[in-house]
Specification:
Helices cover 75% and strands 1% of the residues. The chain is mainly α and 357 residues long. A two-stranded antiparallel ribbon has the order 1-2. α8 packs across α11. The longest helix has 59 residues. The radius of gyration is 26 Å and the shape is globular.
Length: 357
């Protein structure tokens, strides 16, 4: 009788175990079916967060963005914009409130996909680099170093910039034209079609080389400094800035500001050269910039090195930093807002993956 009880108990336990195993297998199978859909949803949420971050941050500093470009490309023999305050006042006086935001629609049309691709690419690149780093070191607990973050950020910047470069090119031209310009681009698509028809498809990627070189330190340092600074603050907890292993919005904005300042200062000369090369081949470029039909300096460069050489020779080394002040005033809040907005939107959307993982 006892043996029958033992057999019955064993059989019962076996049946329960079988049912549990089958349930677990069914659950895993169900998760396997849902996994691709879940992954796609996570990717979409991450892209949306990056796009929102880019649109919000860039619109907030649109007047300074336009002034920066005008300062970078204006004719040295006909100075119209001389400093941040004077430049903004001049735009307001001659073009009104709308003039401060001219080109912002095109800018957002470019920056939203650019920002989405950039943040998503950084997440993917950082995860891939971290996996390889752990395999190489044999340490499964290893974390990204500042140098590895720099590499991941550089990859993200190159991918995002290359994908949206034609939009950046026409955005630059839309931004510098004024009411007195003999040639008026009516919008993004009109500018794209006009450049393609009159200058050829290669013109849409004019200035791409200095852009690639410039984006490596710029975007790379932005991510590397921001993430490394956050990690350092969380580990050291100085001045009571960290509460429950979380940084406040103000502290994160400060981290983003530092990251933006470092990155843009190092990469700025390449940005100036990129803008000038984008004007090459545009016969109305000089008059568009000065607002008049006369010019004493032709905008002709054979390449990046030639653009550097002619700019320094004719205008001095300081010309490589034209527009740096309004750009600094712009970049500091822009980068800070972008990082914090991205993280906040991801939290709202419930995205599990984080750029610091």
């Amino acid at each position: 009788m006892a043996s029958e009880d033992v057999v019955g108990k064993t059989t019962s336990e076996s049946a329960v175990s079988t049912i549990v195993n089958l349930a677990e297998e069914a659950k895993l199978a169900s998760e396997g079916v849902k996994a691709p859909g879940h992954a796609v949803l996570s990717i979409c949420k991450s892209l949306v967060a990056g796009g929102v971050a880019g649109g919000v941050s860039r619109t907030a500093v649109a007047p300074l963005e336009r002034l920066k470009i005008l300062l970078q490309v204006q004719n040295p023999h006909s100075i119209k914009y001389n400093g941040t305050i004077q430049g903004l006042k001049y735009i307001w006086k001659t073009e009104g409130f709308r003039g401060l935001f001219k080109g912002n629609g095109t800018n957002c049309a470019r920056i939203i996909p650019n920002s989405a691709v950039k943040f998503f690419s950084y997440e993917q690149a950082s995860q891939g680099i971290l996996l390889l780093y752990r395999q190489q070191t044999g340490n499964e607990e290893a974390q990204l170093t500042p140098l590895l973050r720099l590499g991941a950020g550089a990859c993200a910047g190159i991918i995002a910039m290359s994908a949206t470069y034609p939009m950046d090119m026409v955005r630059g031209r839309l931004t510098v034209q004024t009411e007195k310009s003999p040639r008026q681009y009516r919008g993004i698509f009109h500018a794209l079609s006009t450049v393609l028809r009159e200058e050829g498809p290669r013109a849409l990627y004019r200035g791409w080389t200095p852009s690639v070189i410039g984006v490596i330190p710029y975007v790379g340092l932005n991510f590397a400094v921001y993430e490394s600074l956050k990690d350092w603050l969380i580990k050291t907890r100085p001045y009571g800035l960290v509460e429950d292993s979380e940084l406040s919005v103000t502290t994160r904005l400060a981290c983003g500001a530092v990251a933006g300042t470092v990155g843009q200062t190092i990469a700025y000369p390449l940005d100036v050269i990129r803008r000038r090369m984008q004007m090459v081949g545009w016969k109305d470029a000089a008059s568009v910039v000065t607002g008049e039909g006369r010019s004493k300096a032709a905008l002709e460069y054979t390449g990046m090195i030639d653009a550097f050489r002619k700019t320094v020779r004719h205008e001095g080394f300081g010309a490589l930093y034209k527009g740096l002040v309004p750009n600094s005033v712009k970049v500091v809040p822009s980068i800070a807002i972008a990082f914090v907005t991205y993280e906040m939107v991801k939290d709202i959307l419930g995205v599990e993956m984080r750029i610091s993982d």
